[in-house]
Specification:
192 residues; alpha/beta; 3-stranded antiparallel sheet; 9 strands; globular; binds zinc ion
């Protein structure tokens, strides 16, 4: 599957929207990306995750681990294809932690999976959890790199797609200057 095909799937499922958007950061952008829109289609998730599984198939991996929530569907599917078990860490008082009886096995190798990496914060937290409990990080696989390749985890890493984030302060937004109404994604309201 080529990068072009991948992009087409993101556009076709409205995961990638072009327009004029207010981002949660308060900045404006001409693009909005919501990975869950594509991953709600299990057949697309299977296809996209096959690139991650394919990339790591010759690496030594014992388990897959993901940060909740976005990473879970990715980790589960990659683990299914690699025929490994999949666990996840979730936020407890804003800190990622293992719950539900999940444990890190000492000396075992873990592939970290995530949907979108922007700052890599959640992935770094999961890496810390694994290492603090004696596990080894085999690599990090994720669907979309929004860091412009800036985030490096210091282990083998692979993303299926790089999507540059272009955003503007309100004063500098070229779309505002053209009086194009902006949309807050997730709501259907259009601002005047
Ligand atoms: Zn604007």
């Amino acid at each position: 599957m080529s990068t072009q095909n991948l992009l087409e799937i993101f556009i076709e499922t409205n995961a990638l929207l072009n327009g004029h958007f207010l981002l949660t950061s308060g900045r404006h952008s001409n693009q909005y990306f919501q990975c869950a829109k594509v991953l709600q289609h299990p057949q697309h998730n299977e296809l996209i995750c096959s690139r991650i599984a394919e990339h790591f198939k010759d690496h030594e991996i014992d388990f897959v681990i993901s940060p909740a929530i976005g990473g879970i569907v990715v980790g589960q599917e990659v683990a299914r294809q690699l025929k490994k078990q999949s666990i996840f860490a979730e936020r407890e008082d804003k800190i990622l932690a293992l719950r539900r009886g999940f444990q890190i096995e000492e000396g075992k190798k873990y592939l970290v999976c995530e949907d979108v990496v922007t700052t890599g914060g959640s992935v770094f937290e999961v890496i810390d959890i694994v290492r603090a409990n004696g596990g080894i990080i085999a690599g990090v696989g994720f669907i979309v790199d929004r860091s412009n390749n800036k985030v490096q985890f210091g282990v083998p890493q692979f993303s299926t797609l790089q999507l540059e984030v272009v955003s503007y302060q309100l004063d500098d937004c070229p779309l505002c200057k053209q009086n194009i109404p902006f949309v807050k994604p997730g709501s259907r309201k259009v601002n005047p």
